[in-house]
Amino acid sequence: KQWYQRRVAITAGMVQHFNSLGYPCPLYANPLDHYVDLGTIDYRSESTQLKTSDSVESLKKSFMESAIHSETQKQIQYWKSGPRENVVFYRTKANKHEIMRRMIQRLQLNLSRDSSALTMRLSQLFLFGFFMFAFFFRIGSNQNSMQDRVGFLYEISCGPIFIGMFNAI
Fold first, then answer.
1. Is the four-CA dihedral 2, 8, 9, 11 of positive or negative sign?
2. What is the residue-wise DSSP string for 64-107?
3. Tens of pLDDT along 56-115?
4. Cβ–Cβ < 8 Å for 112, 118
5. Residue 138 · residue 144 · CB < 8 Å
6. pLDDT class of 5 with cuts at 50, 70, 90
7. Which H helix or E strand runs over 58?
8. How many CB atoms lie within 10 A of CB 9?
9. Is the dihedral of CA 34, 36, 42, 48 positive or negative?
10. pLDDT by residue (tens digit) across 23-33?
11. Which phi and psi angles does 65 have, rounded to 5°?
12. Nearest Cα residue to 66 out of 33, 107, 17, 28
């Protein structure tokens, strides 16, 4: 039950709450990581265990006396008091063009972060396309050429996958 109370606590005022207790979050640090470290007992040595246990107990006591705790208790009692209408959140159907636009934006952002990798990928795709173009125009119209066309289609479909695997290595 105590874990549930901590789990559903309001997180909007977390940074202000810890600042008021004298535990400010360091600059450029993830507040969640910092506060989880504050609320964890360190068992590596007896002195650190005692120190962190006292710190955790003081954090627990201050939380139990805080406005956040009382608000959380009110919310829990409200939801326990009787049957509520089931709240279901539905995703709205996104426009296919909007999805494609966002995917292209993410692609551009991720590719622009590493210009050397982008240059390498584009050069590999250019060379792949050049070789496919050169081999495609050498294909004749006999039975062997039909087999070559099937092989060409295979290379077109698998080539970018192998280039991606090569880039991942």
1. positive
2. HTSHHHHHHHHHHHHHHSS--PPP-PPPPPPPHHHHHHHHHHHH
3. 898 888 888 888 788 888 888 887 776 666 665 566 677 888 888 888 888 788 777 778
4. yes
5. no
6. very low
7. helix 46-64
8. 19
9. positive
10. 888 888 888 88
11. -100, 0
12. 17
Compute the average pLDDT of residues 42-66.
87
Cβ-contact 103, 149 below 8 angstroms: no
Contact 31, 14 (CB under 8 A): yes
Going from the C-alpha of 148 to that of each of 131, 132, 141, 152, 153, the distances in angstroms are: 14, 11, 10, 6, 9
Cα–Cα nearest to 8, from 87, 56, 78, 58 = 78
pTM summary value? 0.40
> Could you give the CA distance from residue 142 to residue 135 in angstroms, rounded to a whole number?
15
Q: Token match 């606590």: residue?
A: 9
* Cβ-contact 13, 68 below 8 angstroms: yes
Q: What single-letter amino acid sits at 35?
A: Y
Alpha-carbon distance 122 to 110, whole Å?
Answer: 14
User: Other C-beta atoms within 10 Å of 17: how many?
Assistant: 21
